[in-house]
């Protein structure tokens, strides 16, 4: 079986979700290539080590540049806050890595363009994580629309109902800080709706 060594940059909420996907994808799907959870990366050694052990990564590293420059890493998965994406993605592209980047892609449009220019210049495979595309309900809706079973669609109205940040006890995370999040809820949550349209 062919394998692909993954370097995951970021270990918090989305890093946890991606770790779960890498660990279990081969159980649910017949994959032509199996992901190998090679190295997880984050800034804080103690919680990073705990994440490595809990999620099942072979190694951990606190310097993303070391992960990106490793010859044994095939894919760089970026799950950090968006203000950190540009530097990681540009360096990963220079290193010839396959890149899978969480959304929002960047805090600023100019950064997104620089990322796109880098992946095009170095001709690396790249994708943004739009995980709702593969949800069964979304697939069914697409099928019904494509087959014309819902008639001609002229308008779509959608909402993204996610209220966990409304809890007054919820900690201050990057999503709530404009200088880090950039576009805020529009880029973080509404991006899914725009993608599915």
Structure, described:
This protein has 197 residues and is an alpha/beta fold. The protein has 2 domains: 2-131, NAD(P)-binding Rossmann-like Domain (Rossmann fold, 3-Layer(aba) Sandwich), CATH 3.40.50; 135-196, no CATH class. The protein has helices at 13-28, 45-55, 64-69, 85-94, 109-121, 136-146, 178-181, 185-196, and strands at residues 2-9, 33-41, 59-61, 75-78, 98-101, 126-128. The chain has a 6-stranded parallel beta sheet, sandwiched between helices. Helix 1 links the parallel strand 1 and strand 2.
Describe the structure concisely:
With 197 residues, the chain is α/β, with parallel strands linked by helices.
What keyword list fits this structure?
197 residues, alpha/beta, Rossmann fold, 6-stranded parallel sheet, 8 helices, 6 strands, 42% helix
Cα-atom radius of gyration: 18 Å
Largest sheet: 6 strands, parallel
CATH superfamily descriptor of the largest domain: NAD(P)-binding Rossmann-like Domain
β-sheet strand percentage: 15-25%
- In total, the number of strands is 6
What order do the SSEs take from the amino end to the carboxyl end, as H and E? EHEHEHEHEHEHHH
Measured as a percent range, the helix fraction is 40-55%
Instruction: Identify the overall geometry.
Output: globular
Any guess at the CATH architecture of the largest domain?
3-Layer(aba) Sandwich
Structural class of the helix and strand makeup? alpha/beta
Assign the CATH topology of the largest domain.
Rossmann fold
Please give the domain count.
2
The CATH class of the largest domain, by name, is Alpha Beta
Provide the spatial order of strands within the biggest beta sheet: 3-2-1-4-5-6
Distance between the termini: 36 Å
Low-confidence stretches: none
Q: pLDDT average, as an integer?
A: 90
């Amino acid at each position: 079986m062919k394998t692909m060594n993954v370097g995951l940059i970021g270990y918090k909420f989305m890093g946890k979700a991606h770790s779960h996907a890498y660990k279990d994808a081969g159980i649910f799907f017949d994959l032509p290539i199996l992901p190998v959870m090679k190295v997880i990366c984050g800034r804080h050694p103690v919680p990073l080590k705990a994440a490595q052990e809990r999620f099942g990564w072979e190694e951990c590293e606190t310097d993303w540049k070391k992960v990106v420059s490793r010859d044994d890493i095939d894919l760089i998965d970026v799950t950090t806050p968006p203000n950190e994406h540009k530097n990681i993605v540009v360096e990963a592209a220079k290193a010839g890595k396959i890149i899978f980047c969480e959304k929002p892609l960047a805090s600023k449009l100019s950064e997104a363009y620089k990322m796109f220019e880098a992946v095009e210049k170095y001709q690396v495979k790249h994708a943004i994580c739009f995980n709702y595309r593969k949800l069964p309900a979304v697939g069914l809706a697409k099928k019904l629309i494509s087959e014309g079973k819902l008639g001609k669609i002229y308008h779509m109205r959608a909402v993204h109902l996610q209220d966990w940040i409304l809890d007054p006890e919820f900690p201050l995370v990057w999503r709530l800080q404009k200088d880090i999040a950039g576009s805020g809820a529009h880029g973080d949550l509404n991006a899914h709706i725009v993608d599915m349209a």
